[in-house]
Every structure is written in structure tokens, then in C-alpha cells.
Design brief:
The complex is a heterodimer of chains A (32) and B (146).
Chain A: H1 9-19, E1 23-28
Chain B: H1 5-14, E1 16-21, H2 26-32, E2 39-43, E3 49-54, H3 59-76, H4 80-93, H5 99-115, H6 119-130, H7 136-141
Antiparallel strand pairs in B: 2-3
Helix pairs in contact in B: 1-3, 3-4, 3-5, 4-5, 5-6
The chains are: A alpha+beta (32), B mainly alpha (146).
């Protein structure tokens, strides 16, 4: 299954408060 | 990229995932104090860092570190029953990884924090006599043996 990555940290944080799930923040230099 | 389905499944089930390319989002590096790639952080629901993984790891080790991150986030948020369950899951499913000894230590601490029962700490020290006796976590737990 593919991970549905987001790019907006602040929006993801707002969603995390609603969903109760913590944030996973992945910094990469690999091609996206 | 994470080709192993058990890794992608765990990430999707457990976290709200954000991926930032360092060239596209250099401001985020400074905001979160990241200095290297890959860097993976677990943030609590308020944006506070709970755990950090720096550098590449093979799948078993990476998965165990992700599980440690989820467990530490639960612990630091005061959800001790959940953190104990998550730490023990690492012990049960990935016992040969570097994360296992740390998980054994914090599983005991989580049980103590949830119950207030000091025997949970002594039991943890005893468990280190059986497994991971040469780890730094065994040294930290040894104070509870007496």
C-alpha cells in the first residue's frame, strides 16, 4: 500500500489533533 | 521510499505522515532542527518532538524504531497503558533489533507509571538478567534489582 504523504506540516498538525494520530515527519533528499 | 509493506502499513495505521524534501522546504529544516537526511521525527498532537531517527536503517530496525517512536509519543503524552503495549509489541515481534532492550526498559517504566507499583521495576531488572544483559539499558535497570 502507498503512504498518503502530506507536505503541509501545519495542516497535518491540525488534522493530527482531530484524528488523535501523532505526526511522522520525514525529511528526505531523495527524488520525490 | 519504503518498499516493505509492513513498514508502509504501520506508518499509515499509526501516524499522520508528512514528507518534506529538504531542497523544497529548507525552512522546515531550521524549524525542526534537522541537520541530516534521512531524518524521521515523531511529533505529538501538539507538534512537540517525541522521537527522532537519523540515518538509514534496514527494514526490521527501521520498523522497530518507528514503533519505539509511537511508544515514546504515547508515554510522553501520559498514555501509559498504550505505551506499555507498544513497547511490549517490539519485544514480541522484533526481539533481535537494537530497539528491543530499550523497549524492555520502557515497558517496565510504563507499567510502573500506570500502576504506581514498584514491583514492575524490579520485574524489569530481573527480565534484563534473562535478555539483553549486556545492553546499556540493563545497566540502567540494575538499580531496581535490590
Amino acid at each position: 500500500m502507498a503512504i498518503e504523504w502530506k507536505e503541509d506540516v501545519d495542516r497535518a498538525l491540525a488534522e493530527a489533533k482531530e484524528s488523535g494520530k501523532p505526526l511522522l515527519l520525514d525529511f528526505t533528499a531523495a527524488p520525490m | 521510499m519504503y518498499p516493505e509493506s509492513r513498514v508502509t502499513q504501520f506508518i499509515s495505521d499509526t501516524f499522520n505522515p508528512v514528507r518534506l524534501h529538504v531542497k523544497k522546504h529548507p525552512e522546515a529544516l531550521e524549524r525542526f532542527g534537522a541537520n541530516w537526511t534521512p531524518t524521521v521525527m515523531v511529533l505529538d498532537r501538539n507538534g512537540k518532538e517525541a522521537y527522532r531517527i537519523e540515518g538509514y536503517l534496514p527494514p526490521d530496525d527501521f520498523l522497530s524504531q518507528l514503533e519505539l517512536g509511537a511508544a515514546h509519543e504515547a508515554f510522553k503524552s501520559g498514555r501509559f497503558d498504550e505505551s506499555e503495549r507498544r513497547f511490549r509489541h517490539i519485544l514480541e515481534t522484533l526481539p533481535s533489533t537494537d530497539a528491543a532492550a530499550e523497549a524492555q526498559y520502557w515497558a517496565g517504566v510504563s507499567k510502573y507509571k500506570a500502576s504506581g507499583d514498584g514491583s514492575a521495576l524490579k520485574a524489569t531488572a530481573d527480565a534484563f538478567k534473562e535478555r539483553y544483559a549486556d545492553s546499556s539499558w540493563a545497566k540502567k535497570a540494575s538499580v531496581w534489582a535490590a
